[in-house]
């Protein structure tokens, strides 16, 4: 097999595309020939040694992928050789082959392309868990999505619209604004050119958004929290801008608002049955055309450094996908 190996997490430049021995198939696992893998922001952080999880060295990055089962460990039920699957495995996806716990694999309907499947689980599960479970989003409510043109942002936009909400997309460029309008955003704010608070006040007639979906953090967070509606829910998804904001908690008191943490990975571990039901619902939404991953570019797996450079430059709309020939 071939894989991108990280022996020293000092950045993307330290990754090497190497021939490696095939991984050993452990009990309870599946061997999968990787057809496609997508980039998520943690993939960049982990090779820079900035992520909360520090895997032992050396490691193969790549959290999310799709492919075909080539071997099933003894005793594993529900999977067969030749079956199409997707998985959010945490590591090892930027390779031609991977072994994963069968519990992490999601069977794919025939209509689900490998490219879409590789870009699906992390962003759509995170966004559905955030908006529908943690945020208790109701039809007719207004959602502000920060970083709305990114991977989780485009997923959140589609899910919020499917749930009957009004969506305000906040982005950093006119090109990203146009992409969000094409996805169905009801209003768009370019926060590099417009004042976020002033625009939110005008767009909501002074009420503010009922739900704020924030995967960005940084200097946008306080302005968004100050604008939230009475009984609003502020969803903390991540910190793509790089800094963790310190929010004045008196704002939660004054607005009767909730500051809600969202950690889909831990939810999936602690509540696997609820997570499985959610993934099944999302797969049904995909089949019905309610949601579809926004794929920015599809590149060969060997072009991982170029994909990382595009992500680091914040030029990506949706997800970048890498494929094995």
Automatic annotation (TrEMBL):
It comes from Pelomonas baiyunensis. Residues 11-322 form the Enoyl reductase (ER) domain. It is an enzyme of class 1 (oxidoreductase). The keyword Signal does not apply. Gene3D superfamilies: Medium-chain alcohol dehydrogenases, catalytic domain, NAD(P)-binding Rossmann-like Domain. PANTHER family: QUINONE OXIDOREDUCTASE-LIKE PROTEIN 2 (PTHR43677:SF4), SHORT-CHAIN DEHYDROGENASE/REDUCTASE (PTHR43677). The keyword Oxidoreductase applies. GO terms for molecular function: oxidoreductase activity. Its EC number is 1.-.-.-. Keywords: Oxidoreductase. This is NADPH:quinone oxidoreductase family protein.
């Amino acid at each position: 097999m071939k894989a991108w190996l990280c022996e020293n997490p000092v950045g993307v430049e330290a990754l090497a595309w190497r021939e490696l021995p095939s991984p050993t198939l452990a009990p309870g696992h599946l061997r999968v020939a990787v057809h496609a893998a997508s980039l998520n922001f943690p993939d960049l952080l982990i090779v820079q040694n900035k992520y909360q999880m520090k895997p032992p060295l050396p490691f193969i990055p790549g959290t999310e992928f799709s492919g075909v089962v080539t071997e099933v460990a003894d005793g594993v039920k529900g999977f067969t050789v030749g079956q199409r699957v997707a998985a959010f495995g945490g590591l090892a996806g930027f390779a031609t082959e991977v072994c994963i716990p069968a519990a992490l694999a999601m069977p794919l309907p025939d209509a689900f392309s490998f490219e879409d499947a590789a870009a699906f689980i992390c962003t759509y599960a995170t966004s559905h868990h955030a908006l529908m479970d943690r945020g208790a989003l109701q039809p007719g409510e207004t959602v502000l999505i920060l970083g709305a043109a990114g991977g989780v942002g485009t997923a959140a936009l589609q899910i919020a619209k499917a749930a009957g909400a009004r969506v305000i997309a906040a982005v950093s460029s006119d090109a990203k604004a146009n992409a969000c309008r094409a996805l169905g955003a009801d209003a768009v704010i370019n926060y590099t050119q417009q004042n976020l608070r002033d625009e939110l006040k005008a767009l909501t007639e002074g009420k503010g958004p009922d739900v704020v979906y924030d995967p960005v953090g940084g200097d946008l967070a306080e302005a968004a929290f100050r604008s939230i509606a009475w009984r609003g829910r502020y969803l903390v998804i991540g910190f793509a801008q790089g800094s963790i904001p310190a929010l004045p908690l008196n704002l939660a008191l004054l607005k009767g608002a909730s500051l809600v943490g969202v950690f889909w990975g831990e939810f999936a571990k602690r509540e696997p049955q609820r997570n499985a039901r959610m993934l099944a619902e999302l797969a049904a939404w995909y089949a019905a055309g309610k949601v579809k991953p926004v794929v920015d570019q599809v590149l060969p797996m060997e072009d991982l450094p170029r994909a990382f450079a595009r992500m680091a430059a914040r030029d990506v709309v949706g997800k970048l996908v890498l494929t094995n020939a």
